[in-house]
Design goal:
Number of domains: 2
CATH architecture of the largest domain: Orthogonal Bundle
Shape: elongated
Helix content: 55-70%
Strand order of the largest sheet: 1-2-3
CATH topology of the largest domain: hpI Integrase, Chain A
Order of helices and strands: HHHHHHHEEEHHHHHH
Strand content: under 5%
Number of strands: 3
Largest sheet: 3 strands, antiparallel
CATH superfamily of the largest domain: Intergrase catalytic core
Number of helices: 13
Distance between the termini: 69 Å
Radius of gyration: 24 Å
CATH class of the largest domain: Mainly Alpha
Amino acid sequence: MWSSYLKGFRGYLSLERSLSPHSVGAYLADVGKLTQYLEGEDRLPAPAEVRAEDLTGFIQWVGSLGMTASSQARIISGLKSFFKYLLLENVIQSDPSELLESPKLRRILPDTLSVEEIDRMLAAIDLSKPQGERNKAILETLYGCGIRVSELVNLKKSGLHLETGFIRVIGKGNKERLVPIGSQAVKHIRIYLDSGSRQNAQPGQEDYLFLNRRGSKMSRVMVFLIVKDLARRAGIQKTISPHTLRHSFASHLVEGGADLRAVQQMLGHESITTTEIYTHLDREFLRQTLEDFHPSFRH
């Protein structure tokens, strides 16, 4: 009985929600945990017979297994999606997950880099080496566009619209978006393309923008190592990854007064609440400015 609904749910997540195979698998596993719990309680009821109390008991059971608050929140999100799907398909008349509340998650503000620190990382690149121009173009693109490292390694030459100042990015769930690209990133991408370091591109890899020494698409791990090495060379003590440049891009925009909705679109966030973390960063920046420069804050 549940198997047919799960099959339909899989199609709904993949086709209508455009979720990645990993996310689809996680959602299906979460509903699978629910059926396991319900079977252990008495008998496995039909989806239309599941009550809000059943779901509350399930979440308490999951919590008793030592699952973290973030894992519980993800499971609740999966259940809400499942019952929303059943509601759309008229399998149920009311949504038992409607009143489920996710646990409060402690938001950890990510490390960001100052403009001066980013300049130091750029200056640490050895342009005499064959991959120097590539690495400079990578850093300028990560910071200048705020894209994810997975989006960076999948950038295509055919997705570059440098004359108009945009690049085409394939984000989470295979969703496509156009992202503005700054003049410095444009400049160094052009230098990299003209440098001749891509001449050994392997068959089928020619359209990928950033290639490794063997002429194949770069891996996320390789970009991570490049960024970590440049941070070390620049004498930066913070915990740095390619994502730090994305956070820096967003926080510098918000600090400068950019519209949060515009930042959301550039980052490819599905929900504005994800982008709102940068308003917290902005408040920290404002407080630090007051402590540094306002007489009443000086000790």
